[in-house]
Amino acid sequence: MQIPEQNHSVKIISKLINELSKLPGIGPKSAQRLAYHFIKLPKSEVLELSSSLIELKDKIIYCDICQNLSDENPCSICTNNQRDHKLICVIEEPLDILAFERTGSYNGLYHVLHGVLSPINGIGPNNLKINELLNRIKVNNIDEIILATNPSIEGESTAMYIQDIIGDLVPKITRLARGLPVGGDIEYADQMTIMRALQGRQEI
Description:
alpha/beta; Helicase, Ruva Protein, domain 3; 13% strand; two-stranded antiparallel sheet; 5-stranded mixed beta sheet; 2 domains
């Protein structure tokens, strides 16, 4: 018995569900709900969404200095003369910057690693923006480096590795205080937790 082919509309919906399910945190059921939600939306809203995604890919770049995502190079944080340019907070991902900025208690610069060391996943020092951090430290007179990787096994290992290679290059290296829960992500921490972690950082 020959199985009839899917009609064209079903193929289109299935393709959309498949693409949506590739997004982080989106399973097949959630992808299906999103797909049918898009079907119900006015065409103008769908076009606005697609336009935003295209603009995102066309205009968002990496800042040459801090490696953060930006629509200008260097980014607005790195060019802000009101910030402390002798203080750098090293973080895992661009979203972590948003968490720190929401507290209003940090006035230094950032450096985004874009991940953590994870040998089991084949991620070594050359896969992260560690060399770019080294170059910044060598070129600029940095007073303090704050290692603000997540309090996970990979985050701790990454912080220890960076500490070892920059120990002789900067006068002060600190780690965020344990206001952050072990195994948690900075991205999801509340403002008070991050503020206390910043204020209670310790030299290492």
